[in-house]
Amino acid sequence: MKSFYITVTVIVGLSLLLPSTGSFASAHEKSRPVKKGILLVAFGTSVPEARKAYDNIERIVKAAFPDVSVRWAYTSSMIRSKLAKQGQPLDSMETALAKMMDEHFTHVAVQSLHMIAGWEFHELQRNAAAFGAMAGGFDRITVGGPLLASQEDFAKVTEALLRTIPPVRKPAEAVVFMGHGTSHPSNAGYPALMYYLQRKDPVVFMGTVEESPTIEEIKQMLTARKVKTVYLVPFMAVAGDHAANDLAGEDETSWKSMLSRAGIKCIPVLKGSAEFDDITAIWVDHLKAAVSRWEAKP
To answer: Measuring CA to CA, how many Å separate 59 from each of 51, 69, 129, 144?
Structure first.
């Protein structure tokens, strides 16, 4: 008899850890008005001039979703801390979602403004899923992919990037885009994008700050082709610190300095990718897909 009670106790205890059938959630959904929101999640920037890229994204998103509240979050704690000291507080994604939950949002689309699906994007996905699992929280929370989320995106981004090249550039002059780079396997997206670009224009290159292709590798390719002039362009949502310092800075380790020492004339173009509507439209397409999943069955 004692073993019977122990067995029943264990079964009841385990049942409390199992998910419910969802009937309570369904009743909860019907008992409150629908309130929809969009959370745009970026790495962030503390450079005032770079903020116009995010302003452009917000403008296009609000035009596409005029009746939906739009919020912002930065994933970089360093940038959030710096902005807070300047009296410009920005929330992390988790804080922003907690506030939206407290404000009784029922449907939320979290849109990544990252370039590739690296560590930060996967963390974003996991934490958004955690909010979706909270009892009494959102009825539906979905996530929109980064800029390069599919093979189709590579073709779209290639065409969009080529349209951003200054029209005064001559055919023999090269273009070098600077991506951030990551230790995540998704870093393979950068050399893959260079492959797509060079199928259209053989003197357009894609390098990264932290991984491969490195600026040393790019320099070897440029000198092998006897390139004399190169346009330096950030492949980042905003033209922030990396663009101003690592790409076009006067320090001897900047890409501009390294290529100049190799006898290559450098022309920096300090505009973030999100300043161009064609590129921003790809993120917005991912957001539209995330919003459409609000109505899909769980």
So the answer is: 12, 12, 27, 18
